[in-house]
Amino acid sequence: MTESNKTATLTIHGKEYELPVHSPTAGPDVVDIRKLYGQAGVFTYDPGFTSTASCDSTITYIDGDKGELLHRGYPIDQLAAKSHFLEVCYLLLYGELPEAKALETFETTITRHTMLHEQMQYFYRGFRRDAHPMAIMVGVVGAMSAFYHDSTDIADPHQREVASHRLIAKMPTIAAWAYKYHTGQPFVYPRNDLDYASNFLRMCFSVPAEEYEVNPILSRAMDRIFTLHADHEQNASTSTVRLASSSGANPFACVAAGIACLWGPAHGGANQACLEMLEEIGSVDRIPEYINRAKDKDDPFRLMGFGHRVYKNFDPRATVMKQSADEVLDLLGIENNPKLQVAKALEKQALEDPYFTEKKLFPNVDFYSGIILEAMGFPTSMFTPIFALSRTVGWVSQWKEMIADPQNKIGRPRQLYLGETNRDYVDIEKR
Ligand code: CMC
Q1: Span 269-327, pLDDT tens digits
Q2: CB of 258 closer than 6 A to ligand 1?
Q3: Looking at ligand 1, which residue's alpha carbon is closest to its atom 14?
Q4: Of 3, 195, 316, 429, which alpha carbon lies 20 to 30 A from 204's?
Q5: What is the pTM of this model?
């Protein structure tokens, strides 16, 4: 970070403090409060980090008002239309679009790391068959630390590189096997002649009894879903990965923490929750009832797939996802899909309602992804694992950036304490 000439003045109890202000390449200025406690003896208070930049980063930029998402400067709609997932992985990890030879080498490296240690099968078999695939993924990814000791030394750049490649390469196998275990079918091994998305579809849907032909249009749609979820700057799961890693924990443990955070319905779990909501609504005539519930302060119900902490305009990923949903349903000959009809009508009615427009609540990436995934044959329980596999490259890129940053120190937020002050212990017979 370069030294800044700009400052902000803060007056506390009549005394003034000059704070440096940093200007980013894009986005709002940032007031640097790192020395504030030392100088003024006060903390800042920002639950949910609504006004706090937790790090500096060069990976992803979001302009929430414009509805813009850039990876290393490239707009997501261009990447979704012209690039493909592994190229986007390279871009996120290394900062530039690769030349042909570099891309080929990277793709070969990822392809050669897709198999899991054979012993990991027994780890899967310890889970109940009805375990949610996300529960399996949290456990199995955390367990990678026990299987791949030779890439857990975060001080060694080579080991960091190998860990990054392993995580990106093995995640489709881990997610597909979680699905296979959940459904009671045999595990399917990866195949090196297939591209990343086709390989994942085959590991999910093929069975030993018959050959599985990967449909190139579905594989392209799968690849686009991976691309659209690849990174999203300092969201809850990415911040979890960064915080876990700030203590020096190994990358597999940190990504397992990210997966656990992603699982929640306010974050990655929203795609499953959204499809379940569309199913529950069931028909277009019941939409007003659900819109009224979402607007009712006394009802905890929220329109899943609507709203975003950063986007106060259309989520650019949702626009691409909506087109993809139309293409996939058309290809599969699924006409008049009731959930798609409910989704389209719900989007229209919500966007005509002042409650949603005034609060700037627009459809997010999860609003249409579930419809595509269901049409491809995935059960709702696999939606969030697919998000986790796509986001792994984002977690890994942010983790690598953080470890390489000389300013990196353990994350240790403070608090506004509102509990009892010092008091004497009372013996049990006197309480
Ligand atoms: N339905 C109805 N009302 C909503 C919704 C919604 N989906 N989202 C926000 N609001 C209201 C909320 O009640 C609040 O109203 P008021 O100001 O009157 O109290 C206002 O809008 C602002 O909401 P907030 O909770 O302060 O906003 P936030 O930035 O903390 O939350 C969010 C963002 C994504 C958690 C929230 O919009 C939400 O719960 N959405 C539904 C879940 C969802 O789709 N999540 C996926 C996010 S995109 C994928 C990802 O990044 O993981």
Answers
A1: 888 889 999 999 999 999 999 999 999 999 999 999 999 988 988 899 998 998 888 88
A2: no
A3: 359
A4: 316
A5: 0.92
